[in-house]
Amino acid sequence: MKQADRTFPLPFFTINKNFTILTFSQEAEKLCGTPASLLEVFDQGSLEKVKKWVTPELHKAALEVHLKPVAEGVEPLTVDLYVTWDNDLYAQALIIPKDDKLTKVTKTLNQLRGRLNDTNFELLDEKEKLENAISQNNRLSAPFIRLTEDTALIPLFGDLTQVKMQAVEDNLLKSSQNDDIDRMLFDFTAVGEMNREGIQVLTNMMTSLFYMGAEIVIIGVKPKQVKVLHEMVIPSQIRFMNSLQQAIHKYCVE
Looking at residue 190, which CATH number applies to its domain? Predict the structure, then answer.
């Protein structure tokens, strides 16, 4: 195992089909140390998911997993794992830590669900808290992650509904202006179903960002999603790329 020659702005590994780590980035070393196997990176509860989905037969995978706690008593760190196989032997694995706010909201949701299972005594009060947490979770389902001085990543998660897209619209428009971002990468890898009303809100938002001066790049679109996107009216200058790894290599690797 050796450190990767190129510097990536996020934790990055090259592995073989046995999960042996062949190379890794500096950010990966800072976050995970220097394990021999990718399986050593993740919490026990995530291992079966990793073994099931990280396989050459699937070619690409995007899943939410937990890193092994760095110390006793510390909560496991929730991250998104993106894996692309170059062939049947070797793959590239990219780890994107969840936004702190999103992690806190997810933890709150889990705590609320547990309490509601134990007692119905405060049902109305807890229901209101849960609805507020779900609303906050919707707003954070498209986090704004700054990769470089001029490039930001917006990974989209779950189904693209009208309510969810309306919840994230203001934050993304404000973040792009406040951070003076020139390029925004919208990653569809972890997107589920695409509600027509939801995708219309998203394409309108992309169009607004484009006319505000930002370069828009759409990545990770599945074949069945391409038809839906092309039915929407979006500027022809908006670019499409196959994968997050390809976009990072083009725009973020020094």
Answer: 3.30.750.24
